[in-house]
TrEMBL record, chain A:
Residues passing through the membrane, by range: 89-111
The keyword Transmembrane appears for this protein: yes
Source organism: Pedobacter miscanthi
Keywords from the UniProt entry: Membrane, Transmembrane, Transmembrane helix
Highest taxon above the source species: Bacteria
Protein name: Anti-sigma factor
Matches recorded under InterPro entries: FecR, FecR_C, Ferrdict_sens_TM
Domain (FecR protein) ranges: 184-279
Gene Ontology MF terms in the entry: sigma factor antagonist activity
UniProtKB/TrEMBL annotation, chain B:
Name listed for the protein in its UniProt record: RNA polymerase sigma factor 70 region 4 type 2 domain-containing protein
Highest classification ranks of the organism: Bacteria, Pseudomonadati, Bacteroidota, Sphingobacteriia, Sphingobacteriales
Transmembrane segments: 186-207
Span of domain RNA polymerase sigma factor 70 region 4 type: 127-177
Organism from which the protein derives: Pedobacter miscanthi
Nucleotide-binding as UniProt keyword: no
Amino acid sequence: MGDQENLQLIQQESFLNYCFKRNDQDVKDWEEWLAQNPDRRQEVDQLRQMLLLMGDGSRTRTISADFADLQNRINHSARGLKVIRSSAWLKWSIAASILVLFSVGILFYIAQNAKTANPKLADVAPGGNKATLILANGKKIDLSGAGNGAIANETGIKVIKTAEGKIIYDLSNTTAAANGQYNTIETPMGGQYQVNLADGTKVWLNAASSLRYPTHFSGNERKVELTGEGYFEVAHQKNMPFKVASAGQTVEVLGTHFNIMAYHNEPVVKTTLLQGSVRISIGKQHTLLKPGQQAARIGSKISVSDDVDMEDVVAWKNGYFKFNESLEGIMTKISRWYGVEVVYETKTDPNLTYSGKISRGRNISAILKIIEFNGDVHFRIDGHKVYVTK
Amino acid sequence: MKKGKDLKTEWEKFILEGNNTSFYDIYAHYHDYFTYIGIKKGANAEKTKDCINDLFLYIYENRENLSHITNHHNYLVTSFLRKLFRREHFSAEESLDLYDLEEMPVYPSVETLHIKQHTSNQVTLTLKNYIDKLSESQSRLIYQKFYLGLSYDDIAASNNITVKTAYNTIYNAVEKLKKMIGEGDLGTLSIAISLLSLLILFFLKIYG
């Protein structure tokens, strides 16, 4: 079915009524039409979702702009100046840039003793595609500031930045035979980034993480170093294993998909295998993982478990938080993604588990409100500190 | 979705404590409502926006004198319409007419909220970048069409453009985004949505 034909649906008010569920009759009519034209459903669903998101995004932009105008007028009005304190205004203008939409309920709670949540929280915007690239000569490039396209040339190897938070090492115009030089990519708190390495391996870096790798692989192994959390889709290369060194362990593979979480402030280093096979080595001790298994390591002790939800592990890479843990565990993840410090003013129960799923694109308040909904704790946000209170 | 009358707590917080977040919440809500009413009643879109800001500037500067107001919703609506139509008073019949305003269509729907929550970070960012790149007037038309749900006719009239221009401007924006989604790895949208329908049913059962 032609794109144009589908797009022209937006000329029909009845179709838009169906999209926005504004009129029961139109919803019914279009549902019937879709039932008769099932081949159109996927396109229509996608179009509908696009329209909803576009409407919402345009609203945010329009209201933010108009509110900024109003704020400007208040600032320049004689009366306004007396009342306004500048710090409050700064915070406020940040809040204004993002609309706080209240949420219906995204997390599934184990405990469901619903109480009314604290109606207002200050807010912190989510993280985004932010990272710094450190070249072999020590030069630092801020990837969120750099334009798209070729951003560096490392002895003939082009480093290309694409629009969607990704850099690619392009070997096509080089005969690089020499050993690659090392580059490092670092994400701050509230940052994430993707790197496509010279061998075609894809690496997603979570917040507060870093990856050190050669711009070009040669010799009999491909070796990189990770801190924090990364998801790897290793391009298969026979006779040239891929090795990830992190927090005292080495993970060795030929070609496979796996996730390593090795944050300094997490007690456990977790290596999770989604496809293929990997070998984890700590000194002379080796452990083999099968797909679906997770190795949890504390010090030099490794325990392997089979019943791990793969979706939980890679949720971050797919743009979600998926929780199934204690409040403290959740708050550690939140602090990394929103760049906030968590201050406990009350004791939390380590045995109480929260589970749920929410987009990482939401403001921090959306998540905190839902946790509050459970009734056990409350939150207060002050700048970049989140206080956990009774 | 909250109605204006549900914002009583926010109103009181702003009037009594000068709470800025509450002020913003009230502003955002009535921005939608007044833009909707203004355009529906045939007022110019630009003028509607100015009247909204005039009203909220007044409220901000005079909040100490507004503590006697018990029905904030009627107060805001009347003040807004006075400004919009440059009238000091309305006759009794006119007033009745005024309060008999249409409620806005329900939005954002439960579904929009869910789609937002289940849209991946990547898509959200791409979309935000895309919207930021639109011209301001283009983005306003999309807001009026896909958020406020106004008709092409109403939108054209209040923005002083032809229906054809209104339609084409919006069509082009959708087409461009569609292309971007087709090219990039945002093709997962439709998968997310079918999963959603299930989730929504689930939620309506629990919270409905």
